[in-house]
Design a protein that fits this description.
Elements: E1 5-9, H1 15-24, E2 30-34, H2 46-61, E3 67-70, H3 73-78, H4 80-86, E4 91-93, H5 95-105, E5 110-115, H6 117-122, H7 124-132, E6 137-142, H8 146-151, H9 158-173, E7 178-182, H10 190-197, E8 202-204, H11 206-220, E9 234-237, H12 241-251, E10 259-261
Amino acid sequence: MNNPIGVFDSGVGGLTVATEIMRQLPNEELVYFGDTARVPYGSKSKNTVLKYSRQIVRFLRTKNVKAIVVACNTASALALDEIAEEIDIPVIGVVKPGAKMAVETTQSGNVGVIGTASTVKSGIYNDYIRELNPEITVVSKACPLFVPLVEEGLLEDRVTEDIVSRYLQVMKEYKVDALVLGCTHYPLIRHTIKRFMGDKVTLVNPAFETAKSLKELLTEQGMLNKQKHKPHHEYYVSDGVESFISFADSVLPCHVTDTKVVDIESY
């Protein structure tokens, strides 16, 4: 099935998911939408995130996508179930694959989850993890400044190191040995997080796990594109084309040549 896969996020963080899909599913074409005009989602209400997500899904459906990846932890937590009920194509989020890997990874039974305020408040990672193993202790921490730091390109900056140490000290105190990067922006500062947490803590990257789950889903449903070719990916944003292209070129395994602005409020 040669139709593209729709991928969306509140901004550029979802490019970490797009990168993993490109690596693990090299024949698939992607239509990526970054809601750069309305980032971040993490401080917004469920109703607002659901409204934004529905608009983006309506836009992606105009591109005849065969599946949609909600490459945003906040939207996965607050809007995924409703979206999945409303459309007739597969929808996959980033939360369940990340939670599953955290359960499989931990040895101590102490798992840390970091994310936006909305993701942490929803308790969705805690619920999924405890569903899989009720014995696990989950320590959650909202890290609202990580997204703007990433969006500003301050990936290896001293200020980022300071904020990481301030937010994550609690994870050391609880002796977590698996830490879920519960926002798609966070893998972009994983080296700074890893330096602070140390080698004994495994960082769980839901972006990698989501691409793996997507491959399994498409294979099971006979929707995998098996035709070997150089795929053509499309990129759309709600604002800030130049900064998006610059950032995308630093993250993706391919060069982004063309990005279009979409009036997403009209959908």
